[in-house]
Amino acid sequence: MESTIVMINLFGAVALLLFGLAQVKDGVSRAFGAKLRTGLATGTRSGLRSFLSGFVATIALQSSTATALMVASFVERELVKPRMAQIVLLGANVGTAVTAWIVATGIEWLSPLVILAGIVLYRSGSTSRQGGGTALIGIGLMLLSLHLLSSATEPMRQSPALAAFIGLLDNAWPVALAFSAGIAFISSSSLAAVVLILSLASTGILSAGLIIVLVLGANLGGAIPPVVASLSGPPSAKRVTLGNLIVRAIGCAVALPLAGYGADILEMLPLSPAKLPVDAHLGFNLILAALAWPFSRLLSKLMLRLVPEEAQPDNAPKYLDQGELSTPVVALASATRETLGVGDLIERMLMRAADAFEKDDLAKLKEIPSLEKRVDSLQQEVKIYLSKLGREGLSEENGRRSIVIIDYAINLEHIGDIIEKGLLPQVTKKASLGLKFSEDGYEELKKLFHLTIDNLRIAQTIFVTRDFKLAKQMMEVKVEVRRMEKQSSERHLERLRDGRADSLQTSSLHLDMLRDLKRINAHIVSVAHPIMDEHGLLIESRLKDAAE
Predict the structure, then answer these.
(1) Closest CA relative to residue 224, chosen from 186, 256, 177
(2) Residue 539, SS3?
(3) pTM of the shown model
(4) The CA-based dihedral angle spanning residues 333, 336, 340, 346, taken in that order and rounded to the nearest 10 degrees
(5) How confident is the prediction for the chain on average, in pLDDT?
(6) SS3 state at 467
């Protein structure tokens, strides 16, 4: 009976830890999700920035799995290069290890205060503050779980059965590694596995060598959930998560025979024996990052061979299940997912056009016509699907949501037309004729291209979350784009009056691209109109004064 109570307490403490981790991830995503995604997508232009982006994102989300899946989706959309994605995950691994090290510093006594602060912040009202409050509550629950884990493992010191099991593992390190990897995989968290090892190590029943082996297993098991989650994804996403698993597996294979020597070295250092698991966890990931970083390019090429490209998918929708039409809420969610996919295609088209504009690379434009055909086909499928849903009779709220989805899909299709019929021939003309803009004109167009891409990413977030603050921010962006377009046109005309040869040569091209980018942004901003209208802030397509 006593052993049963101990196990219930232990599993309950682990469950609380996992729940706390989930709360932190959910809260941070709600409070800073858009900024995190944008930062992770744009902060990968160099190896060091990629490493730091992965590190910071994982510290914030408390989940290297979440970071891995996020960066895999960016690779799929070609926002992050595969090589940089591998470096991002090295930073994510170190971020998880640093998190484990921090929670082991004995600050669990702060849990009531952190939970109280989280509740106060959560009740403050705004979405971002509620997200921050949820994250604080999650951190407090994590710290509380450490205290419960310590109490739950205390009776184990005198357990003959546990001593026999530990002795078995100590004499079979590969089995111990597999056992720890299984725990990390089942819990979908290497952090949870390391914290559990930390609690067991505090009882004094684990040898230093076994601690290192168990930590290696936690690292290996923690890399498996992202691989499983990306199995149904495109090859580009699979390569990222599988590459991370291969790096950790190689690291564990090399470190396992050396675990005894590593234990001797750690015991010689002035480190606390009680914190040996987190010290070993951090040391392993730092060494692995340093050794694997130089081979990131080679790893990307290897993954390209191991996971080759699949045949080009047809234009059939992925999520529009006819069987879901009888359940409007589910059908609307599926239509939303499909429309988000259309937005991703538009983003790829814009990225292609922007890259070709900056690098005069016509090869980057070849995919745009086929992408535009997919956009046309999918938005038509979404409209047909939702028209069938409307025949079933919808509630007023579901009816409004259906119209919002259709409107957004139509606006995305219009953007695709502008890119194919406007930007594509314009950029092609620039590259094929070797035309050179003035330095100022080039920078103005480049800035507007990047702003347009960022606005589309925010629009995708608004479409899903219907966040009022983001919608209001998007409406203000429309004014900013109009101002940028007007200023660029005026400056261009000034350069023409000054007789600048480069401006004379590219005059019509410059003005046409400004016009088309402005039109694209107008379609993007439309995603905010229904939200502003619901709050009574939209009158004849203009935003009321914020003071009203």
Answers:
(1) 186
(2) strand
(3) 0.60
(4) 160
(5) 82
(6) coil
